[in-house]
């Protein structure tokens, strides 16, 4: 409804990001080096303006013990370079507007082609996924979740199950 000005939204988002940072600093994930730890990469397609949500999701995964990397607004080439050189167990892609559908589909295809982990799982989420549940299959993703907590639970179940089989 555009009740707030651009300036008000910017100030509010800045405050939310500061709060997320402060809360994250209190919960630095300490992983046991002798234990296997899943790795997740969290991205949004290049050109988007929304990165706060994917940062929140990444933070919850890190708190759950994952090794994480968050790269909002990543290009397909940058994504390919990352997944070629580092074995992520899961790639989380956030999308919020229709205009990101083609870029997300291309990102998923590139992950499938380039990943050094041939069993990498791709999870999609965001407001658009909640509105169009059939979009998960149309994009070629493996998983989706309605919110970040559900995403952690689903991913951990799938990734740990996959790890136990191999």
Quick summary:
The protein is an alpha/beta fold.
Secondary-structure element series: HEHEHEHEHHEH
Describe the largest sheet: 5 strands, parallel
Query: What characteristic shape results from the CA principal axes?
Result: globular
Q: Number of DSSP strands?
A: 5
Mean of pLDDT: 85
Helix content: 40-55%
Placed side by side, the strands forming the largest sheet appear as 2-1-3-4-5
Runs with pLDDT <50, length 5+?
Answer: none
| Euclidean distance between termini CA atoms | 50 Å
Number of helices: 7
SS-derived structural category: alpha/beta
Strand portion, in percent?
Answer: 15-25%
The quaternary state of the protein chains shown equals single chain
Kindly provide the radius of gyration, computed on alpha-carbon positions and rounded to a whole number of angstroms: 16 Å
